[in-house]
Amino acid sequence: MMNRRLTLLFVFIFLASALFAQKTIQKPIKSLNEAELPQGTRTIAIVDVLLIDGNGGQAISNGSVLVKGNKIIAAGSSKSIQIPQGTEIIQGKGMSLLPGLIDSHFHIDGAEDLPSTFLQNGITSIRDPGLWIEMYDQVRKSSKHKPRLFLSGPHLDGSPPAYPNDAYVVRDEAEAIRQVNEVVDQGSTVIKIYFRTPPGLIKAITDAAHKRGIPVTGHLEITEAKHAIEAGLDGIEHITSFGLSLTPKRKAEKYRQSMLADNNYRKQGRYEAWAALNLNSAAADSLARYLVKKGTFVSPTLAIFEYQPGKGAIDSIQLKGFDQMMKLTSKLQKAGVNIVVGSHGMVPYAEKGWAYQREMELFVESGMSNSAVIHAATMVNARFFRIEKELGSIEKGKLADLILVRGNPLEDIKAMRNIEKVMINGVFVK
Ligand SMILES: [Zn+2]
User: Fold this and answer.
1) What tens digit of pLDDT does each residue of 103-123 get?
2) Cα 64 to Cα 74: distance, rounded to the nearest angstrom
3) What is the distance in A from the centroid of ligand 1 to the CA of 105?
4) Phi and psi (nearest 5°) for 98?
5) In a domain, 391, yes or no
6) Ligand 1 centroid vs 70 CA: distance in angstroms?
7) Is 253 within a domain?
8) Structural domains in the chain (count)
9) Which helix (H) or strand (E) holds 369?
């Protein structure tokens, strides 16, 4: 009898706690400016396109998509789509339709028109991994259309911080946890740690962020990637964050100490370190396997490191170092690592507004297939942002963020620069 009562009690406690857990389930992640976005009200069909849905599979050569309000209500081969009377029809012959592009690493760098320019160029969601949220107030107030804004608040860093204006210095666990909660209350949808963040704090930070349902990403440089991922890190910013993992211990420690003494040491120091790496090593293979096992997202930001020899003397160290960064990117992607596209906002070898497309081109030059690059730009990034239920692919029920490009980017990635139309939330903004 007693046993039965006890069992019932346990069942009750179990059910009650399950119910409580349900109640504390996080709200889905939304961009900060969700309520400020235009809202589609019409029914629009985009017909006869090459449909590249973002999921990484086969494209549909004659596809159509039907949008009603701010949602996709049908997508597939043109034959299978019923277009209701009165629908506005966009003829897309000779063009490709893709999901709006998602940028995991955008910096505004004082150019307040840059988010709008990015939107005009097909990037419908941007994540700024390290800036005070109020720095976007002006952008949000401007009358121009903007992409969905996913912000982090200032990145967390140790003392002295590498970029004081964009950093919040964390000295201990309590401070780190408080800061995480404060920026999430303000609307942050990701936390970014910078390379001077004391490694012992990473677990406290990731635990606090995960409790609030948001991911943590990091620029590591002088912290071993595996240690940070073991502590709960979800994403790695910059391919260079793996340099330490692939450098022999004694040399790696020299790099770390040089960086701790001078933040700017990396500017040339990282090319020297990368030029000397062996990417066909057991260490590189084991790193790839580890990242696959952990499901870690990697935003290589190759375009910010790109080196192109110009007139005059060639910097062979930079040339070799950058080539190695491309090689590791492609190696990780081929091993099954979640590679995503992050533009860095403005980069040396792209005109203002085209850094994202440059990053896609560099992925292709690295050896990734065009299809994999488009997948990395859309659905993989949506998963990194934890917004894949609403965005990242062209599927029935998802939000209507769509781009129409002239030509076929599966054959030539440069077609991603031929942006004909951009739709956000069911409204054409270009
Ligand atoms: Zn950055």
Assistant:
1) 999 999 889 999 999 999 999
2) 8
3) 6
4) -130, 165
5) no
6) 31
7) yes
8) 2
9) none
